[in-house]
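Why does residue order matter? Because the sequence determines the fold. Keep that principle in mind as you read this record.
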Amino acid sequence: MDDDWERRVDEAWAAYDTYGEDRDAEFRALIDALAAELPEGDPAGLFERACAFDSTGRSDRAVPLYQEALERGLSGYRKRRALIQLASSLRNVGRAEEGVALLEPELDAPAHELDDAVRAVLALCLASLSREREGLALVLGALAPHLPLYQRSMADYARALVEPDPA
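Structure:
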Protein backbone atom coordinates (compact mmCIF):
# COMPACT_ATOMS: atom_id res chain seq x y z
CA MET A 1 0.00 0.00 0.00
CA ASP A 2 1.45 3.34 -1.03
CA ASP A 3 0.42 6.94 -1.51
CA ASP A 4 -0.72 6.26 -5.09
CA TRP A 5 -3.01 3.44 -3.93
CA GLU A 6 -4.43 5.62 -1.15
CA ARG A 7 -5.01 8.44 -3.65
CA ARG A 8 -6.88 6.13 -6.02
CA VAL A 9 -9.02 4.78 -3.17
CA ASP A 10 -9.81 8.36 -2.11
CA GLU A 11 -10.73 9.23 -5.71
CA ALA A 12 -13.02 6.21 -5.97
CA TRP A 13 -14.84 7.24 -2.81
CA ALA A 14 -15.01 10.88 -3.91
CA ALA A 15 -16.79 9.68 -7.07
CA TYR A 16 -19.15 7.34 -5.18
CA ASP A 17 -22.19 9.61 -5.46
CA THR A 18 -21.87 9.66 -9.24
CA TYR A 19 -22.56 5.93 -9.37
CA GLY A 20 -26.13 5.86 -8.09
CA GLU A 21 -27.99 2.80 -6.81
CA ASP A 22 -28.23 1.18 -10.22
CA ARG A 23 -24.42 1.01 -10.34
CA ASP A 24 -23.70 -0.43 -6.86
CA ALA A 25 -22.12 -3.58 -8.28
CA GLU A 26 -19.88 -1.48 -10.54
CA PHE A 27 -18.68 0.57 -7.59
CA ARG A 28 -18.01 -2.55 -5.52
CA ALA A 29 -16.05 -4.00 -8.46
CA LEU A 30 -13.89 -0.87 -8.56
CA ILE A 31 -13.11 -1.17 -4.85
CA ASP A 32 -12.52 -4.93 -5.25
CA ALA A 33 -10.00 -4.22 -8.01
CA LEU A 34 -8.16 -1.75 -5.80
CA ALA A 35 -8.17 -4.18 -2.86
CA ALA A 36 -6.85 -6.91 -5.14
CA GLU A 37 -3.69 -4.87 -5.69
CA LEU A 38 -2.77 -5.51 -2.07
CA PRO A 39 -1.54 -8.82 -0.71
CA GLU A 40 -4.29 -11.38 -0.05
CA GLY A 41 -5.95 -10.71 3.29
CA ASP A 42 -4.46 -7.23 3.70
CA PRO A 43 -6.57 -5.52 6.38
CA ALA A 44 -6.83 -2.23 4.46
CA GLY A 45 -8.19 -4.04 1.41
CA LEU A 46 -10.68 -5.98 3.53
CA PHE A 47 -11.76 -2.73 5.17
CA GLU A 48 -12.29 -0.94 1.85
CA ARG A 49 -14.32 -3.88 0.53
CA ALA A 50 -16.43 -3.83 3.72
CA CYS A 51 -17.03 -0.10 3.26
CA ALA A 52 -18.16 -0.66 -0.33
CA PHE A 53 -20.67 -3.29 0.72
CA ASP A 54 -21.83 -1.15 3.61
CA SER A 55 -22.28 1.96 1.48
CA THR A 56 -24.28 0.03 -1.10
CA GLY A 57 -26.76 -1.32 1.43
CA ARG A 58 -25.17 -4.70 2.07
CA SER A 59 -24.37 -4.55 5.78
CA ASP A 60 -24.73 -8.34 5.89
CA ARG A 61 -21.73 -8.68 3.56
CA ALA A 62 -19.78 -5.90 5.26
CA VAL A 63 -19.84 -7.35 8.80
CA PRO A 64 -17.54 -10.35 8.18
CA LEU A 65 -15.11 -8.21 6.18
CA TYR A 66 -14.86 -5.59 8.93
CA GLN A 67 -14.34 -8.36 11.47
CA GLU A 68 -11.61 -9.99 9.40
CA ALA A 69 -9.87 -6.66 8.82
CA LEU A 70 -9.79 -6.06 12.57
CA GLU A 71 -8.61 -9.60 13.28
CA ARG A 72 -5.79 -9.18 10.77
CA GLY A 73 -4.48 -6.08 12.51
CA LEU A 74 -6.18 -3.10 10.91
CA SER A 75 -4.70 -0.07 12.64
CA GLY A 76 -4.75 3.68 12.86
CA TYR A 77 -7.56 5.78 11.48
CA ARG A 78 -9.05 2.88 9.53
CA LYS A 79 -9.32 0.81 12.71
CA ARG A 80 -11.41 3.46 14.45
CA ARG A 81 -13.58 3.81 11.36
CA ALA A 82 -13.96 0.03 11.18
CA LEU A 83 -15.15 -0.16 14.77
CA ILE A 84 -17.74 2.56 14.17
CA GLN A 85 -18.91 1.16 10.84
CA LEU A 86 -18.98 -2.43 12.09
CA ALA A 87 -21.15 -1.39 15.03
CA SER A 88 -23.51 0.40 12.66
CA SER A 89 -23.65 -2.61 10.36
CA LEU A 90 -24.27 -4.95 13.28
CA ARG A 91 -27.20 -2.73 14.25
CA ASN A 92 -28.49 -2.86 10.68
CA VAL A 93 -28.51 -6.67 10.72
CA GLY A 94 -30.30 -6.90 14.07
CA ARG A 95 -27.24 -7.35 16.29
CA ALA A 96 -27.28 -4.00 18.10
CA GLU A 97 -26.06 -5.55 21.37
CA GLU A 98 -22.81 -6.50 19.66
CA GLY A 99 -22.52 -2.95 18.36
CA VAL A 100 -22.90 -1.59 21.88
CA ALA A 101 -20.27 -4.02 23.18
CA LEU A 102 -17.90 -2.93 20.43
CA LEU A 103 -18.29 0.81 20.99
CA GLU A 104 -18.66 1.18 24.76
CA PRO A 105 -14.91 0.65 25.33
CA GLU A 106 -14.24 3.36 22.73
CA LEU A 107 -15.81 5.92 25.07
CA ASP A 108 -12.72 5.58 27.27
CA ALA A 109 -10.20 5.65 24.42
CA PRO A 110 -7.87 8.65 24.02
CA ALA A 111 -9.50 11.67 22.39
CA HIS A 112 -9.92 11.27 18.65
CA GLU A 113 -11.60 13.23 15.88
CA LEU A 114 -14.14 10.42 15.44
CA ASP A 115 -15.33 10.50 19.07
CA ASP A 116 -18.64 12.11 18.13
CA ALA A 117 -19.23 9.45 15.47
CA VAL A 118 -18.61 6.77 18.11
CA ARG A 119 -21.26 8.36 20.30
CA ALA A 120 -23.73 8.81 17.45
CA VAL A 121 -23.55 5.18 16.33
CA LEU A 122 -23.59 3.95 19.92
CA ALA A 123 -26.72 6.06 20.48
CA LEU A 124 -28.38 4.39 17.48
CA CYS A 125 -27.45 0.94 18.79
CA LEU A 126 -28.86 1.83 22.21
CA ALA A 127 -32.07 3.14 20.64
CA SER A 128 -32.44 -0.17 18.80
CA LEU A 129 -32.30 -1.84 22.21
CA SER A 130 -34.98 0.48 23.69
CA ARG A 131 -32.34 2.38 25.67
CA GLU A 132 -33.16 5.76 24.15
CA ARG A 133 -32.37 7.82 27.27
CA GLU A 134 -28.80 6.53 27.28
CA GLY A 135 -28.50 7.24 23.57
CA LEU A 136 -29.90 10.74 23.95
CA ALA A 137 -27.47 11.40 26.79
CA LEU A 138 -24.59 10.40 24.51
CA VAL A 139 -25.61 12.64 21.63
CA LEU A 140 -26.38 15.61 23.89
CA GLY A 141 -23.00 15.14 25.55
CA ALA A 142 -21.32 15.03 22.14
CA LEU A 143 -23.25 18.07 20.90
CA ALA A 144 -22.72 20.27 23.97
CA PRO A 145 -19.11 21.32 23.26
CA HIS A 146 -20.08 22.47 19.76
CA LEU A 147 -22.82 24.85 20.91
CA PRO A 148 -22.10 28.59 21.04
CA LEU A 149 -24.17 28.82 24.26
CA TYR A 150 -25.67 26.40 26.78
CA GLN A 151 -22.67 24.05 26.79
CA ARG A 152 -22.72 23.51 30.55
CA SER A 153 -26.51 23.19 30.69
CA MET A 154 -26.65 20.61 27.90
CA ALA A 155 -23.81 18.60 29.45
CA ASP A 156 -25.68 18.66 32.78
CA TYR A 157 -28.94 17.59 31.11
CA ALA A 158 -27.10 14.77 29.36
CA ARG A 159 -25.76 13.47 32.68
CA ALA A 160 -29.15 13.82 34.34
CA LEU A 161 -30.71 11.53 31.73
CA VAL A 162 -28.65 8.58 32.91
CA GLU A 163 -27.83 9.33 36.54
CA PRO A 164 -30.12 7.93 39.20
CA ASP A 165 -32.69 10.39 40.58
CA PRO A 166 -31.28 11.73 43.90
CA ALA A 167 -34.78 11.93 45.42
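The two ends are 58 Å apart (CA to CA).
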